[in-house]
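During the no-cost extension, the postdoctoral fellow (Dr. R.K.) reprocessed legacy sequence entries with the updated structure-token encoder. One reprocessed record is reproduced below for audit purposes.
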Amino acid sequence: MTQERTSVSTFKGNPLTLIGPELKVGDQAPDFQLNKSLVDVVSLKDYAGKVKLISVVPSIDTGVCDAQTRRFNEEASKFGDNVVILTVSVDLPFAQARWCGAAGVDKVELLSDYKNNNFGEAYGVLIKEFTLDMRAIFVIDANDKIQYIEVLSEMTEHPNYENALNALKALV
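Re-encoded structure tokens follow.
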């Protein structure tokens, strides 16, 4: 049975129900299955030995999600090959690829949770009411331990970019 919890997260002030565990700093990062394309699937092990910043957005075609992904794309060039920045949304891989091309985003990897919401459930950010993933940031070290988590309290707000980037910098 899938774990549901009433969260402190909202959408325009309305409470949301998140599905999955409430992860904590120090937890082992759960594995996931995300689509790079309709047929290509990646998992946590595909990024083994790398420090990972996972930026979760509800939909890439909205203003805050667009800005969040562009910001991490700009920051990505400041880190070496041992760091990967992933953006996860439930948008179809086609829409993600179209958006990246139009936005000139080429340093972050966009991955889709559209098929079975595997990531959203594993990381406790799947929104029951919308079948979207809640805006969140996870920083995971090279040994796959979670070192930083921010699950936004309001879906329409920006994450704390500086705190997330400082957590990432501390690991490289």
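The helical segments are 63-76, 93-103, 118-122, 161-169. The radius of gyration is 15 Å. The remaining legacy entries will be reprocessed before the final report is submitted.
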